[in-house]
Design brief:
Length: about 475
């Protein structure tokens, strides 16, 4: 097929565009945290400190969930390019924000674009390559998250100090334009899977209501914000009601945004749970290792951030190698088991951190934990894609991503509660200074919970079916509407 040959001819440009797209949204998630104190000093509104993060995460997860069905309706290329434009526009507006209210609104717009940009490239790879070849590209995509975790905070501080906080948003514009310049001419438009565009409005409304109320309640609970218990409890109850409504809507919808019949597929179900666990575990090291280094060992924020390099380097290398192994062997079950097994060892070693832990020991522990998480990054998306029909490819791809995002949100909330509970129990609700040994105990408990999460993942992956992964793509699976160079 000549069009297929054109795609292969321009694949490096297409893949570069997809990679830059993923990198830009990954960086945005980490680069902002460093600049937020300066933003608060400039715009005011300290009481709204967490809301730019919360609203961004909320709209990101919602759009990620919708991205699969929308790309089935309107095509992957149109959705990706449109989402990039929305993200870039939101970035510009964030940079021109005059107060926190504007910043929160524009961060919501950014999140709407970011959720789609973060998921559609994974579907595009699945549309371009047979199941067995997808793993190596999914593994390379995992590099974007690792790079952003290492570079993002430092880059955010440098840009904020040298150019001003506005430029952490403005910098997205030239990078986004580069991605668009590669994708618009060379990325083909794939045939839409669902010809009858019946939108699941009730599912969208109920899911948005459930997620928004859940994250708002979670934010109030974790930040000790002054809010009446009645209102907080009402938010929790409303989220449960909306979740029940979402389940009902998906049972009745003609084109559900999350078909419930997918959960009858054991590979999809196990992959979904594994992604939730993986999402939670991946945040543990990046959040609590710097906390340990700063508050227990007295390192500066920049130095503590540098010590995350072994964790992320291990994750990046393992993710790439894992994808390559999947492509060569056509098997993923053993790798899934190995991923959680190594993760268990790594998190257990990190749970032994004390004031006397040497730098070399910390580096080794981090590298082991990073390797465990990195191996799992490409596995479950590829496994879930391979277990469903082409019609469900978009929904399944997007679902694995927002399950990982939800895992990160829920995991951080649970782990934060563990830390707070440990400190309060040991301090007996007094306001005395928190000692290093007490912080060591709190962080120790966090890593023990991460060990338990890894053990759960290790056990359930024994039930993961190792389905055959074809190394060939049948003719009807490749559907290009336009040749490269057309929009």
């Amino acid at each position: 097929m000549s069009v297929e040959n054109d795609v292969l001819k321009h694949f490096k440009l297409i893949f570069s565009g997809l990679m830059i797209s993923l990198l830009i949204i990954s960086l945005d998630s980490t680069i902002t945290s460093t600049a937020m104190p300066k933003i608060i000093a400039s715009l005011g509104g300290l009481q709204y400190y967490v809301w730019p993060f919360t609203i961004y995460l909320t709209t990101l997860i919602i759009s990620a969930m919708l991205s699969g069905k929308l790309s089935d309706f309107y095509g992957s290329k149109k959705m990706l390019i449109g989402a990039l434009i929305v993200f870039i526009s939101g970035s510009v507006l964030c940079g021109f924000s005059q107060n926190m209210t504007e910043l929160i609104i524009f961060r919501a717009l950014q999140g709407l674009g970011a959720g789609i940009v973060g998921t559609v490239p994974l579907k595009i790879i699945a549309q371009m390559f047979p199941p067995r070849q997808r793993g190596k590209y999914m593994g390379i995509f995992g590099v974007a998250g690792g790079i952003s975790s290492v570079v993002g905070p430092t880059l955010g501080g440098f840009i904020t100090d040298s150019l001003g906080w506005q430029w952490i948003f403005f910098v997205n514009v030239p990078i986004g334009i580069i991605a668009l310049s590669l994708l618009i001419p060379y990325l083909p438009e794939f045939t839409t899977i669902v010809k009858e565009k019946v939108m699941d409005y009730l599912g969208i409304i109920t899911f948005t209501g459930a997620l928004t109320s859940f994250l708002v309640a979670l934010t109030f609970s974790q930040q000790n914000t002054i809010i009446s218990p009645l209102l907080l409890n009402s938010l929790w109850i409303f989220s449960v009601i909306m979740l029940s409504g979402f389940i009902y809507a998906e049972r009745k919808a003609k084109e559900p945004i999350l078909p419930l019949y997918l959960f009858k597929n054991s590979v999809f179900s196990i992959s979904a749970v594994s992604m939730i666990l993986l999402g939670a575990v991946m945040f543990v090291g990046s959040v609590y290792i710097p906390l340990f280094l700063q508050l227990v060992q007295g390192l500066s924020p920049s130095n503590s951030g540098a010590y995350l390099t072994p964790l992320m380097f291990g994750m990046i290398i393992a993710s790439i190698l894992s994808g390559q192994i999947i492509s060569k062997t056509g098997s993923y079950k053993k790798l899934a088991i190995i991923s959680f097994a190594i993760g268990t060892v790594g998190m257990f070693l990190l749970s032994t951190l004390t004031q006397n832990t040497t730098n070399l020991e910390l580096i080794i522990y981090e590298a082991i934990a990073g390797i465990g998480a990195g191996i799992g990054i490409p596995i479950f998306t590829v496994a879930a894609q391979n277990a469903v029909t082409k019609r469900d490819l978009g929904v399944v791809t997007s679902s694995t991503m927002y399950f990982r995002m939800l895992g990160g949100v829920i995991g951080l909330a649970v782990l934060g509660a563990i830390v707070n509970m440990t400190l309060k129990l040991n301090l007996q609700n007094t306001t005395i200074h928190v000692s290093s040994p007490l912080l060591v105990t709190a962080i120790h408990n966090v890593f023990i919970i991460a060990v338990i999460m890894n053990i759960i993942g290790f056990i359930i992956c024994f039930f993961l079916k190792d389905l055959h992964m074809s190394n060939e793509m049948e003719e009807e699976e490749i559907g290009y509407e336009d040749a490269p160079g057309e929009i």
